Each structure stands twice: as C-alpha cells, then as structure tokens.
Amino acid sequence: MATEHIKTLIIGSGPAGYTAGIYASRSGISPVIYEGLQPGGQLTTTTDIDNFPGYPEGINGFEMMAQLRQQAERFGTEVRSGYVTAADFGTRPFRLTIDGATEVTADAVIVATGASAKYLGLPDEQKYAGQGVSACATCDGFFYRKKTVAVVGGGDTACEEASYLANLANKVYMIVRKDYLRATEAMRKRVEENPKIEILFNTNTVGLFGDNGVEGAHLVRHRGTDREEAFDIAIDGFFLAIGHKPNTDVVAAAGVVTDEAGYIRVDDPHTTTNIEGVFAAGDCADPNYRQAINAAAMGCRAAIDADHYLAAHNLK
Ligand code: NDP
User: Fold this and answer.
1) What is the pLDDT of residues 96-153, one digit of tens each?
2) What does the alpha-carbon distance between residue 123 and residue 121 come to, in Å, rounded to a whole number?
3) Which of 82, 123, 172, 239 is the most exposed place for a label (fewest CB within 10 A)?
4) Catalytic residue numbers?
5) Where along the chain do its domains lie?
6) pLDDT tens-digit profile of 223-236?
7) Which residues are 49's β-sheet partners?
8) What's the CATH code, domain 3-116+244-312?
9) Could you tell me which of 61, 28, 14 has the C-alpha nearest to residue 294?
C-alpha cells in the first residue's frame, strides 16, 4: 500500500493544534490534525474557562474545544483520531508512524502535543489508579458526592480543583508542601473562604491506604525537620494537581531539542525548532505561561511559520 503524503501534519488537538489548523487551512497548506490520546486536550477536563477573551460569561472547556474543532474543519482542516508513536525527521519528507501501525509522510510538522498531569511517584498512586486516585476533578469528581477528598498542590490548578470538588464533596483537604499557596490571589481567596476546604500546609503525602480503594492518606507535616509529625487523614478520593509534564518524548526521540524539563526549544518569537520544517506550539513548548490563549497564539504563529517554510522550499 502506498504511503499517504500530508503537506502539513499537526500533532495534537488542544488550542494550539486547532488554531494552527484554522490558520494553515486558510493559507492553503492542507493541514491534517492527529488528535492524540486526549481529543481536545487538557481544556476538555477543566471546568469553566473564564479568562479566554471573547467569552464574557465564561465557557465550558469541552464546548470551547468543540467550537475550535468546528472552526478548523470549516476551512478544510482534516481532524483524525490517532496518536503519533514515532517520527523520523532525518529524511525529507518526514516520516511519522500513527498508532504504531500506519506510516505517513509530511512536508511540515507542527508539534502541539500539550502536557500531561504529573504524579508524586508513589507506588500507591499506581496501586489505587482508578480506585480513588485521579488527576482530573472534572472527570472524576462526580464519584465523590458527599464524600471526603484531598487535592495535592498549591497552584491555580489545585485551587480550581479544590473549589470544584467542594461543590460536590462534603469536605476537601488541600495538601500543600509549602507554608503558602502559590496560586493567584483570586484563586487563593476562593479556597481560603470556602468552609468546606481545609488547607494542610507544610504537608507531604507519603502513602495511601485502604482495602477497598482509597480510604485514607499517610501524611507528614514539617518533613525533615525536628517538628516532623506523621498523621493520617480519612479520604475517599486523592486528586493530584501538582503541575504538568510536556508530552514531547516521541519528538525528542526523533531529535527535537528540549530543555531539561522536556519543553521543546523554539527560536522565539518564531516557532521553529532545531529541525527545519518542524515547528512547535502550545504547552509542549511553553514552560512559562501555559495558558490556552498563549497556546492558541503560538498555534497561529506555527501555521504562519510552516506556510513560509513550505513556500520557501517550493512545497506549497
Ligand atoms: P504550578 O506549577 O503553578 O503549581 C504546582 C503546585 O504543585 C505547587 O503548589 C507546587 O508546590 C506543587 N507541587 C509540585 N510538585 C509537587 C510534589 N512533588 N509534591 C507536592 N507538591 C508539589 O502548576 P498548576 O498546574 O497549578 O499551574 C500551571 C500554570 O497554569 C500556571 O501558570 C497557572 O497560573 C496556570 N493555570 C491557570 C488557571 C486559570 O487561570 N484559570 C487554572 C489552572 C492553571 P510548590 O509551590 O512548593 O512548588
């Protein structure tokens, strides 16, 4: 069977991928988006998005991504389910493997693979995966109506998740390793003023327990000091909100240069990577802002950069 050739292949379907699709299709460089493991990206697991310009009343994340997809498709972007499992950027055109099976070639590639939730690395997180451990309150909060849950982390995500869960659960602990919340003031206030939320500062989780899924967590306060104190809390659900890791393993293995944390290095303000013809946009290449609006803007830049590249190489 002949290998399919794609002019502009976009990996990922978050705000960066879809915006790249909108611009690339309008400029006639025939984009095909492979959605990846989480169609619509991280925003499909969030609650209302209140800080994306143009939505004065806020918008549900899932709905916003459905609209972005429609907008990209309206101009001819082809959106396919599929996960890029391998890439060879050493040949022209580039070669990419989809779902470990199908091979396609591409003239230009826009990497918009986003980021995934981090875990603490405790063996118990794996032991109780799907049995009380989650990294997505909007996905799994429903199961904890009138129960007790804990959220780990002190950033905006943790505050957002804790507030969301407090609407469902009877009680929410926030387990924060420092003596302050790193979150922005508005988010911080929301949790501090919520009577259902109890913040445990200077506290680390060292394990989980339970015979029937998660029934509690082993915690340590002031770890490593002379005030160190171990204690347990009874919980039904344990939610991680400690940041994200960029999804760049596949492209890094193909030679795309990243920083120590795995974020793709781009030649800012351009989206060019160390490999000519490979561009990066969104959270996979943004260690600083990690906001939907920035991802969308970077997707726009990547499509324009790809268009210029294809034109310069008579590939348009
Ligand atoms: P952050 O990196 O901002 O915060 C991570 C939190 O997890 C910190 O409190 C950190 O603690 C804690 N943490 C990290 N590793 C561990 C660990 N191993 N054990 C215990 N605690 C740990 O990530 P977020 O996901 O909260 O936010 C990422 C970005 O997205 C930010 O720029 C944020 O502003 C933005 N965002 C914006 C939203 C909005 O505007 N609506 C919503 C959600 C996110 P420590 O402080 O000690 O490092």
Assistant:
1) 999 999 999 999 999 999 999 899 999 999 999 889 999 888 878 989 999 999 999 9
2) 6
3) 123
4) 136, 139-140
5) 3-116+244-312, 119-240
6) 999 999 999 999 99
7) 59
8) 3.50.50.60
9) 14
Instruction: Report the 10 Å Cβ neighbour count for 185.
Output: 8
C-alpha 291 to ligand 1 mean position (Å):
13
119-240 CATH fold: FAD/NAD(P)-binding domain (3.50.50)
pLDDT digits (tens, 9 = 90+) for 157-186: 999 999 999 999 999 999 999 999 999 999
- Rounded distance, CA 70 to CA 303, Å? 17
Distance from residue 241's CA to the centre of ligand 1 (Å): 7
Distance (Å, rounded) from C-alpha 77 to C-alpha 69?
A: 9
Q: How confident is the model at residue 1 (pLDDT cuts 50, 70, 90)?
A: low
- Residues in the ligand 1 pocket, defined by CB under 6 Å: 51, 120, 152-158, 160, 177-178, 182, 242-244, 290
pLDDT, average across residues 191-208? 98
What is the three-class DSSP state of 14?
coil
Residue nearest to atom 43 of ligand 1 (CA): 157
- Mutation probe of ligand 1 site: the residue of 182, 188, 244, 284 with most atoms within 8 A of C-beta: 182
- Given this model, what pLDDT does residue 21 score? 98
Which residue among 45, 60, 177, 263 has the greatest number of ligand 1 atoms within 8 angstroms of its CB, and so is best to mutate? 177
